[in-house]
């Protein structure tokens, strides 16, 4: 295939890559917002045969199961296919899902098309954050990667407002056109992807990454069964940390508000359908406003602290929502319900400023290069698995548990605080290779802190141990050389205005 040099080199290429990644995540957000906005449309409910709460959860959640399957596909194929081919496959699957979904005339057709579209979204969301994080400077990585979840908020908010405007149209066009509109974003992303270089070739052009590849080759090829292994740079632990970040991202309660906000405002707060749809759009705008904060300040504020204060803020919001909605059936029901809306606004503002954006940059940073794509796919699988879980139980929580359902998410957010404090290191402003050193030093220090005479003797006499020690020594020396050469490469790129963005 001929290479398409659409964007040139240097800053132009860097900005083109950023814009391509942002448009992909706008598409991701639009898909979530569009279905959430049409759930209460009467014609839509007729098509899906007036589902019960459980079936409605399946209609929403089947998309997330498709996304989970997409992350598995990315796990197995993205390293071999590269960014460009993987993205074209993802756009193809999204197109196959979007057209029959917009033309659906039965529940089965809606379920099948949402599942297929979900596979495409799962592939896309697995590879885009890794691609972006590898091709930007360490000091700007937070801003670039955090701008992707900001784009999700833009997509969700735009979809809500489009659905609100279309709600005044008669018939099925009120929900079919918003769902079909995702094709515009699919076409744009498919065209933009033709420009940037395919990532295996581009990454090899960067000297620092090339040296890091030599370091990783000492460990041999990493198969999927070895991703969770315990080695000198704690690969298994780091994959689990990345998984945990996406678990925190989903289990704080955000998908109750994103996927079912109009239903929540009608059934729990007591608002009419039009007011619920209007306020739902405004609530999603708060999501976007909050996401601007980490986009511009995450490299200054770090990763760990925003996650911690964000979880605490979400805990307070869920607690207040539970308290205020518990007045249902009393004379204070109406004013208490109105007051609870303020905490839905505040929840989305805090979520956008913390737990929404940070995991998408924090997760790939934590992962070593040799499992970065596979490890990120595992992390993103947590996003879709628990997204599906919340989508499934959401309608039941809203209609049956009512205010008590929010207590579950209140407790979850509180539980995240000690986990973040105890187990997650700070990675802001470190290169991806320096983060490897951070974990390697910790592992070495831990192993050297509790020596014993018997262990020392057996290690000396054990050929396997001697070999492992030699490999670790060579690994450490090679990694030190990697850091020196990567730093020299960054300085040279700054002086010469190099054609490739330093990593």
From TrEMBL:
Domain Major facilitator superfamily (MFS) profile, first and last residues per copy: 17-428
Example GO biological process: carbohydrate transport
Sequence ranges of Low complexity compositional bias: 447-466, 473-491
Cell location: Membrane
InterPro entries cross-referenced by the UniProt entry: MFS_dom, MFS_sugar_transport-like, MFS_Sugar_Transporters, MFS_trans_sf, Sugar/inositol_transpt, Sugar_transporter_CS
Membrane topology according to the record: Multi-pass membrane protein
Region of interest (Disordered), ranges: 447-503
Family per similarity comment: Belongs to the major facilitator superfamily. Sugar transporter (TC 2.A.1.1) family.
Protein name per UniProt: MFS sugar transporter, putative (AFU_orthologue AFUA_5G06720)
Species of origin: Emericella nidulans (strain FGSC A4 / ATCC 38163 / CBS 112.46 / NRRL 194 / M139) (Aspergillus nidulans)
Source lineage: Eukaryota, Fungi, Dikarya, Ascomycota, Pezizomycotina
């Amino acid at each position: 295939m001929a290479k398409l040099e659409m964007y040139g080199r240097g800053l132009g290429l860097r900005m083109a890559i950023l814009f391509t990644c942002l448009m992909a995540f706008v598409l991701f957000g639009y898909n979530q917002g569009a279905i959430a906005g049409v759930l209460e449309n009467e014609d839509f409910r007729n098509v899906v045969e007036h589902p019960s709460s459980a079936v409605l959860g399946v209609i929403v959640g089947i998309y997330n199961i498709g996304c989970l399957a997409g992350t598995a596909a990315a796990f197995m194929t993205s390293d071999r296919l590269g960014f460009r081919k993987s993205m074209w496959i993802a756009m193809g699957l999204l197109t196959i899902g979007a057209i029959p979904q917009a033309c659906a005339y039965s529940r089965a057709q809606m379920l099948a098309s949402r599942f297929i579209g979900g596979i495409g979204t799962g592939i896309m969301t697995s590879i885009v954050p890794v691609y972006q994080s590898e091709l930007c400077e360490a000091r700007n990585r937070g801003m670039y990667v955090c701008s992707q979840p900001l784009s999700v908020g833009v997509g969700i908010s735009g979809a809500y407002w489009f659905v609100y405007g279309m709600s005044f149209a008669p018939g099925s066009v009120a929900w079919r056109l918003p769902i079909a509109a995702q094709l515009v974003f699919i076409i744009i992303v498919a065209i933009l992807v033709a420009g940037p270089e395919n990532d295996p070739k581009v990454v090899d052009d960067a000297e620092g990454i090339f040296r890091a590849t030599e370091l990783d080759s000492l460990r041999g090829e990493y198969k999927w069964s070895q991703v969770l292994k315990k080695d000198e740079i704690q690969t298994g632990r780091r994959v689990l940390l990345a998984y945990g970040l996406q678990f925190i991202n989903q289990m704080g309660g955000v998908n109750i508000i994103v996927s079912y906000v109009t239903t929540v405002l009608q059934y729990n707060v007591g608002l009419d359908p039009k007011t619920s749809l209007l306020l739902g759009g405004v609530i999603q705008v708060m999501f976007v406003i909050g996401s601007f904060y980490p986009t511009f300040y995450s490299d200054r504020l770090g990763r760990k602290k925003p996650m911690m204060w964000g979880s605490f803020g979400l805990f307070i919001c869920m607690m207040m929502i539970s308290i205020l909605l518990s007045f249902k059936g009393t004379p204070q029901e109406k004013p208490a319900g109105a007051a609870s809306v303020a905490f839905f606004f505040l929840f989305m503002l805090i979520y956008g400023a913390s737990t929404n954006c940070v995991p998408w940059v924090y997760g790939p940073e934590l992962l070593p290069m040799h499992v970065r794509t596979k490890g990120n796919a595992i992390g993103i699988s947590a996003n879709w698995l628990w997204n599906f879980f919340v989508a499934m139980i959401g309608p039941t929580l809203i209609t049956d548990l009512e205010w008590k359902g929010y207590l579950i998410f209140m407790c979850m957010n509180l539980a995240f605080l000690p986990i973040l404090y105890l187990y997650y290191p700070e990675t802001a402003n470190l290169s991806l290779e320096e983060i490897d050193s951070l974990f390697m030093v910790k592992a070495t220090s831990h192993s050297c802190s509790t020596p014993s005479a018997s262990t020392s003797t057996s290690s000396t006499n054990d050929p396997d141990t001697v070999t492992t020690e030699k490999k670790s020594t060579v690994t450490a020396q090679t990694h030190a050389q990697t850091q020196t050469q990567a730093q020299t490469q960054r300085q040279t790129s700054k002086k010469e205005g190099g054609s490739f963005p330093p990593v």
